[in-house]
Specification:
alpha+beta, Cytidine Deaminase, domain 2, single chain
């Protein structure tokens, strides 16, 4: 992907950061994510943390937004932490990303905004348990 798109994705996610307490049980907006689809669309989401563990990470929120809009093929992902640093998807998000599309191992994830370093999802989830069922390698 070109270098400009990483800054656009970062900015789209950062604009959604808005840490706040919704109730004594729910915090939201402390992490934001932006995903780019193969059609060139950008979808964003924020984390929703609950005391019961039923919350949703920013990445999965962005995926839900994408699916709601009829898409499922992600090519790029940026996660932005509360302090503005780029973050990496948690294990649950990596798992959902792997399951969402047969081409998911090729998703590029920004790991450093300054150097525009990326990693492929497949490198973060080597020997994924579902490859055979997904009919990958």
């Amino acid at each position: 992907m070109n270098k400009t798109i990483w800054h656009e994705l970062y900015d789209a996610a950062k604009q959604k950061l808005n840490p706040r307490v919704l109730t004594p049980f729910v915090d939201a907006g402390g992490v934001a994510a932006a995903i780019l689809t193969d059609k060139g669309n950008v979808y964003t989401g924020v984390c929703i943390d609950t005391c019961s563990g039923l919350g949703m990470c920013a990445e999965r929120n962005a995926i839900a937004n994408m699916i709601t809009n009829g898409e499922s093929h992600i090519v790029g992902l940026v996660c932005v932490m509360t302090d503005g640093r780029v973050g990496s998807p948690c294990g649950a998000c990596r798992e959902m990303l792997m399951q969402i599309d047969p081409n998911s191992p090729e998703i590029e994830i920004l790991t450093d905004l300054e150097t525009l370093s990326t990693v492929r999802l497949g490198d973060l989830v080597p020997d994924w348990w579902g490859n055979e069922r997904m009919q990958r390698g």
